[in-house]
Design brief:
single chain; 346 residues; Rossmann fold; two-stranded parallel sheet; globular; binds nicotinamide-adenine-dinucleotide; binds uridine-diphosphate-N-acetylglucosamine
Length: 346
Amino acid sequence: MKVLVTGGTGYIGSHTVLSLLEAGHDVLVVDNLANSSRESLSRVQEISGRTAVFHAVDLLDEPALREVFARNSGTEGSHSRIDAVIHFAGLKAVGESVSQPLRYYHNNVSGTINLLRVMDDYGVRTLVFSSSATVYGESNPVPYIEKMEIGANNPYGRTKEQVEDILSDVGAADSRWHIALLRYFNPVGAHESGRIGEDPLGIPNNLVPFIAQVAVGRREKLMIFGGDYDTPDGTCLRDYIHVMDLSEGHVAAVNHVAQKAGVFRWNLGSGIGSSVFDVLHSFERAVGHELAHEITGRRAGDLPAFWADPSAALADLGWSTSKTLDQMCQDHWRWQKNNPQGYTTA
Ligand code: NAD
Ligand code: UD1
């Protein structure tokens, strides 16, 4: 297939572009580079020996997006035509979404509406969307299953929920759409080559990128947000998933929905809850020594514990995770150690 990947220079996008190229698909990338570097695609090319065609386009610029589809609009089934879209492009920082809600709704929701309109006009109706476990909100019991009522508790999460609603309505209105809503749990790690990985701008919001920057000497110590939760060691439990398992989940999903019309929801997680200390100790094993840390107050909005029930993805897609927390930390560390300043060292 010829797959257009929005947000394809970003963290999960670049790993998925690699998996798609390695699976034999042709890939076009659309990204405005708001939170990423083109260098990621040069490295993907170096690893795979294949090239993804890059277009520096903002989804909010509908004419420019239309032009990409116009240039790839052969007859159905022909080599020049886009067969499917995997849509990663979006802003993802929860705290920033609270202070800049309009920017988040505009970028994530309006950007997606532009994409859907252009896809529809060009008859490209196969879409895989990056949703998030955050749509399950605060009141669902764990593990999360796809049929639960959703209700996010912050603007970022609500952009995901709104796009899920829009896509459900689009699929209900027109049976020619083939749509996968993938709810990711906590992606970490990097490709085993250590050539591509997560490269956050500024202070990392998420746990593993923060630990990695402590390990490489960019931050003094990890602040653990709360040690008094009702969990085995007092810290929160999350379902960490290796980014390569996640990228392979996308390949499985796009292959599946390409053959099947409708709107489908799948959790992509391991089904295992790990605590902040589990992750810290695993990372310390990868690095070979202890890392400075201190327990501080809880972070607003954090839930004590959640993880996926991943059985629907196994039953429908034949997909499940294969990599352990230790492999996630080893691979994340290899990337960080070899690229202490991320892609800017290139
Ligand atoms: P990322 O920031 O590394 O990648 C997102 C990419 O989208 C970036 O390259 C950015 O430049 C691009 N982008 C943003 N707005 C754009 C626009 N208007 N037009 C064109 N490009 C645009 O983030 P990621 O971690 O790779 O996440 C990918 C997707 O997965 C996002 O939609 C995110 O919300 C979702 N997600 C991420 C996580 C996570 O923990 N990383 C968890 C659940 C869901
Ligand atoms: C966060 C987002 C969530 C998003 C997810 C994946 C919030 C409130 N939630 O969730 O919407 O879907 O990332 O991108 O931001 N931790 C520390 N110290 C740190 C960083 C994190 O102790 O410096 C702890 C957190 O309290 C949490 C765990 O580590 O218990 C994981 O945190 P994080 O990586 O931010 O992921 P989530 O909390 O699951």
